[in-house]
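## retry 2 of 3
previous attempt timed out at serialization; input unchanged, resubmitting
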Amino acid sequence: MVAGVVAVIVLVLAAGGGAAWWLTRGDDGPLAGRPRVTDEAAGISYAIPEGWKHEEKKKLISAFTSSITGKPSEGAGTGGSGSQGGSVVLAGRAGAIPEADLQRQAERAARSNAEFFYPDGSSTREESRPTAVSGRPAHTVVMKVNDGKGGEAHLRMTLIAVDATHSAFLLGLTQPAGPSANRTVDEVLESATVSGAAS
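## retry succeeded, writing output
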């Protein structure tokens, strides 16, 4: 479950530094006007949907530099009865990736994260397409994940070539998967901008 995933992520101390956070406002898209997280380590910014939370003092495993969490609406998705579920969006920083290699790296990273968070499950790629974030080349991958316990999760990842020295990513997970919860995660990833603050 994503609730368990979130607990694992936030309880493991990061090996290095984290993100610097503050609130700003966005003007475009479904989340226009919502507070935003600016992740200086990754060099990106993204919106916080209504009802979601970000906690500055929680430390993440070293693969991630910031996160926000939310719970899906009552009765959403295909999880079993009594499923606790939840949603999370995680950001991170990686090395430089040439534009020509974005698709391969994004697809590999999405698959690897599906295997990491759902080691007993299986995943199917539903979408893989080039996009742009603040004019920078990017690639988005969507996976349908069977958690191996009768539940279904939604995974969406966008990998961004921020500049010549580094890339950044946003990873969204929802379990149980459902139209409303999935859409909210997708909107967070679509709200991303390159902040230009990474050093």
